[in-house]
Amino acid sequence: DAKTTQPPSMDCAEGRAANLPCNHSTISGNEYVYWYRQIHSQGPQYIIHGLKNNETNEMASLIITEDRKSSTLILPHATLRDTAVYYCIVRPYSGGGADGLTFGKGTHLIIQP
Amino acid sequence: DGGITQSPKYLFRKEGQNVTLSCEQNLNHDAMYWYRQDPGQGLRLIYYSQIVNDFQKGDIAEGYSVSREKKESFPLTVTSAQKNPTAFYLCASSFPRVVSTEAFFGQGTRLTVV
User: Fold this and answer.
1) Per-residue confidence band for A2, with pLDDT thresholds at 50, 70 and 90
2) How far is B50 from chain A (nearest CA, A)?
3) From residue B113, how far is each of A48, B58, B91, B110 by CA, in Å?
4) C-alpha count within 13 angstroms, C-beta hemisphere, residue A111
5) Yes or no, beta carbons of B92 and A101 under 8 Å apart
6) pLDDT tens digits, one per residue of B21-62
7) Is B15 exposed, middle or buried (0-12, 13-18, 19+ CB in 10 A)?
8) Burial tier of B56 (Cβ tally within 10 Å: 0-12, 13-18, 19+)
């Protein structure tokens, strides 16, 4: 039972903003939304996370809808080096239960020159 | 420099042999994870450990074994019982169930059965 749903692939022109959507309609009140990316044949890299407020760091912005059922990762000025698979995951921040850090198949973002 | 190290980067194994993949971290993280990735697929969880001397099966634990005798180390053994072991293996570590923490990943070990 997938916790998140992402499109399998997306294209974006270099220099443009890349907007990657993620649906997490069954998210619980104690779960954060995390984004990671994986460049080919490397380990995944953390990008950003949030609970309910929008977040921004040096890499990206995260917009979470008010009902928290979906979110969008924004890369403001995409470069060729942003070509990677982007994973959206939900993860509990406290309490009992497993903490398996589950990944889905992600979105393969291809930045076009 | 703090980080998580996997070794070796490439590993070849003959069919029927067990092989152990190394994962070491100096980030003082309590939780460690092993994932398997097949071409064009996402990451699938094999085993994870939230504390020394304790670990839990993930989604695809059959044919694998782990140990967690030290906080810094979480080796994965791919046994001969694993039917299709050729894959890219990733190790990660984090603080378990703590708000606002990220998981750090190693650079992976590519295992090929010959």
Assistant:
1) low
2) 8
3) 36, 23, 19, 10
4) 20
5) yes
6) 999 999 998 889 999 999 878 889 999 998 899 999 998 999
7) exposed
8) middle
Taking the CA of residue B81 and the nearest CA in chain A, the distance in Å comes to: 23
Distance in angstroms (rounded) separating the CA atoms of residues B20 and B8: 10
- Cβ–Cβ contact A103 with B under 8 A: yes
Q: Do the Cβ atoms of B90 and A43 come within 8 Å? A: yes
B66 chain-A contacts, CB cut-off 8 A: none
pLDDT for res A98: 44
Check CB contact under 8 Å for B108 and A42: yes
For residue B96, the model assigns a pLDDT of 65
